[in-house]
Amino acid sequence: MLDVKNFSSNQRFLLNIFVPMAYLFPLVLAYLGPKDLGFGFDVLVYAGLSIGAIGVLLWIAAMWTLGSSLAVLPGTDQLVTKGVYRVFRHPVYVGIVLTLMGLFVACGSVLCLIYVLVVVIPLNIFRARAEEKVLLEQLGLAYQQYRDSTLL
What is the model's pTM? Predict the structure, then answer.
C-alpha cells in the first residue's frame, strides 16, 4: 500500500488533481457519448436519477459534516463521528458511487458503468483502506472503536 505521508509535495499535488479527475472523466464521457436513456426503459431513467440524487445528497452531507477536515489525501487531527459519519465511515465514497451509477443507469451508458466498476470502485476501496490505515496510526483505539460501530 502506498504511504502518502512520504510523497513529495509535487506527488501530493498530482494526486489532488488526478483523483477528482478520475470522477470527472466518466461524466464527460457520458455527456459526449451516445445515450440510450434507461437502456430503453423509462423506469430505469427515474430509478437511476433517484439513486443518483440520493448519492449526491449523501456526498454533500458528508462533505458538509467534514468541514475543514475534508481532504483528498488521508490524514486528520480529529475523528468526525457526527451526521452521516455516525452510520458510514466513508459516506463520500458511497455517495460518489451512488451518484455515478445512478446517472449512468439513467443515461443508459454501459461504458460508464464499466468505468465505475473497474476504476471508481477500486479507487474508492484503495482510498478507504489508505485512510483507515492512517487514521488507525493517528487516532488508535478511538478510530478502531468507531470503525467497529459503523458501516462501509
Answer: 0.85
> What's the CA gap between 82 and 102, in Å, rounded?
26
Q: Across residues 52-69, what is the average pLDDT? A: 91
DSSP 80-128: --SGGGGTBS-HHHHHHHHHHHHHHHHHT-HHHHHHIIIIIHHHHHHHH
Q: Which residues contact 129 (CB under 8 A, 6 or more apart)?
A: 1
CATH assignment of the domain containing 29: 1.20.120.1630
* Gap between the Cα atoms of 16 and 74, Å rounded: 11
Q: Which residues partner with 151 through β-bridges?
A: 88
- Flag whether 77 is in a domain: yes
Residue with cell 487531527: 77
* Domain carrying residue 92: 8-148
Q: Is the per-residue pLDDT at 45 higher than 90?
A: yes
pLDDT score at 82? 93
Residues in the chain: 152
- What 64-69 contacts at long range (C-beta under 8 Å, 24+ apart), as own/partner pairs, is 65/91, 66/92
Q: Cα–Cα distance between 121 and 16 in angstroms, integer?
A: 18
CB 19 within 8 A of CB 72: yes
